[in-house]
Write a structure and sequence with these properties.
This protein folds into 3 domains: about 120 residues, no CATH class; about 170 residues, Beta Complex (Beta-clip-like); about 130 residues, no CATH class. Helix 10 packs antiparallel against helix 12, helix 12 packs antiparallel against helix 13 and helix 14 runs antiparallel to helix 15. With about 475 residues, the protein is α+β, with helices and mostly antiparallel strands. About 5% of the residues have low confidence. The protein contains 16 helices and 16 strands. The two termini are about 45 Å apart. The structure holds zinc ion. The site of zinc ion has 5 residues, from loops.
Length: about 475
């Protein structure tokens, strides 16, 4: 059984005005408070505390009635849930005063709302109201409109000065939201232009009229004797990182580039579709962007973008004033060299401590350069740290790294991406990885030896072996 404790919001908050502002500030504070806490997860629509019975705080305050969990019994005592309840209650009280009503069944106190209503409110966190608003104000779309394929469109296709068409957010989109999920109009592997052209012609002929129109309406930056190939080369997104196969999509292909993008594109190999996720919060009216570049300093990126796509990038990073651009360039160069050093298998084998120290440094540089929004690179970095640890038998750290990698993957690829699922399972069973103890057993630990009494800074130092 066990006893419950927590707090109720009574009366509940209203949808707008001061309540909305206060809730926004409260949520920001909670995020800040727990930003390095691996037990606290930022989901697309709420904050989830992976302790006790996983209490949640929705981003939409008017839905919120109760924050509570069992605070005694098996699930509660191992996770320290009561500490979280107490802290969140204290912060909430500071924002909402007597509307925050703390209760504890151990002291014969009970919440004011009934459980049925509370469960309904918690279920409603999953589906943000913004989508309801959207459905009602979305103008009817014509049959040829690619947006229609998405069901509910968070964006619209607009002319962007100097860039042709692009995608613009119609609503505020929160980090971790799936913006697009679509199947390719066609895919093709690498082949010479004279082979690609008839291949594409055949594929286009077999398409529906709508798909044909969608394909032919895409931009072509290399007009010549191979018009289909030109469209393909201008627009194709790789089906997987580094894959030679490219896919062309009705909507995702309109997304322009930024060196400091707010969205991430990913090919889901299990579902055979492309997804676009918001990797930072995107304000209504802002352009949605993904990276086309392969990193490096601004000059290197500009040369690549000009050669491969025929444009000069004037994103917010490339147009920084000279001194700030120089600092950004230095960070990007450092990211490249750290990435290379971390990926060196010989160093991983002979001096894993140095490799792990580089991961620690890289994490900080990435956070700084991408303003805390480098999900895909951070996911990869944590996975590198996982590999370094598991190759020397350290299951405790490996499982923590895999857990962090999976959280970063969820933001940029979603819960159902094969990579998310793979790293998630490694967090539970790190020793299942093929490189378990392949280099040595010198760091041998078991999964249950993760320290529980460290604060977040100390925990990170332990995790990256930076204690001394
Ligand atoms: Zn740029």
């Amino acid at each position: 059984m066990g006893i419950d404790a927590g707090f109720d919001m009574d009366p509940p908050l209203s949808k707008g005005g001061v309540d909305k502002q206060n809730w926004g500030r409260f949520i920001d504070l909670i995020k800040e408070q727990y930003k390095d806490d691996v037990q606290v997860e930022i989901m697309p629509n709420y904050i989830k505390f992976n302790v006790g019975e996983n209490p949640k705080l929705p981003f939409e305050g008017h839905k919120f009635l109760r924050f509570s969990s069992k605070v005694s019994g098996a699930i509660a005592s191992s996770s320290g849930v009561e500490r979280y309840i107490n802290t969140v209650t204290r912060v909430a009280k500071a924002h909402f005063g007597s509307r925050v009503q703390y209760w504890n069944e151990g002291a014969n106190q009970y919440g004011v709302h009934d459980w049925k209503k509370v469960s309904e409110s918690i279920r409603s966190y999953e589906q943000p109201d913004v989508l309801e608003t959207q459905a009602s104000i979305t103008p009817p779309l014509s049959a040829t409109d690619p947006v229609k394929e998405q069901g509910i469109a968070l964006f619209e296709i607009q002319d962007i000065p100097g860039k042709g068409r692009g995608l613009v957010a119609r609503f505020n989109i929160s980090k971790g939201t799936r913006i697009i999920c679509e199947k390719p109009l066609l895919t093709a592997g690498p082949m010479p232009p004279n082979k690609l052209e008839p291949f594409l012609a055949k594929a286009i002929k077999a398409m529906s009229k709508t798909s044909q129109r969608q394909f032919l309406s895409l931009h072509n930056n290399s007009k010549g004797k191979h018009p289909f190939g030109g469209i393909f080369r201008t627009n194709a997104l790789p089906c997987g990182s580094g894959s030679p196969i490219g896919g062309v999509y009705p909507t995702a292909c309109f997304i322009n580039h930024s060196c400091i993008p707010n969205a991430h594109n990913n090919w889901n190999s299990a579902e055979k579709h492309e997804t676009i996720y918001a990797i930072r919060s995107i304000e209504r009216g802002a352009e949605i962007t993904i990276p086309y570049d392969h990193g490096g300093a601004s000059r290197e990126r500009q040369v690549f973008l000009k050669d491969a796509f025929g444009f000069k990038c004037d994103c917010s990073c490339c147009s920084l004033p000279p001194d700030l651009l120089k600092a950004s360039d230095n960070r990007r160069i450092q990211i490249q060299s750290l990435d290379k050093a971390i990926g060196d298998p010989f160093r991983m084998m002979s001096s894993p401590h140095d490799s792990l120290s580089d991961c620690y440094l890289m994490l900080q540089v990435l956070e700084q350069e991408f303003d805390g929004c480098a999900s895909a690179m951070i996911a990869r970095l944590y996975y590198d740290a996982f590999q370094i640890s598991i190759a020397h038998g350290d299951q405790a750290r490996a499982s923590m790294f895999a857990e962090r990698a999976s959280k970063a993957r969820v933001i940029c690829e979603g819960e159902d991406s094969p990579e998310t699922l793979r790293v998630k399972s490694l967090a539970v069973k790190p020793a299942d990885h093929s490189s378990f103890e392949v280099y040595s057993r010198k760091w041998q630990t078991t999964r249950d030896s993760v320290p529980k009494d460290l604060d977040t800074v100390q925990f990170d130092k332990w995790l990256f072996r930076q204690e001394n």
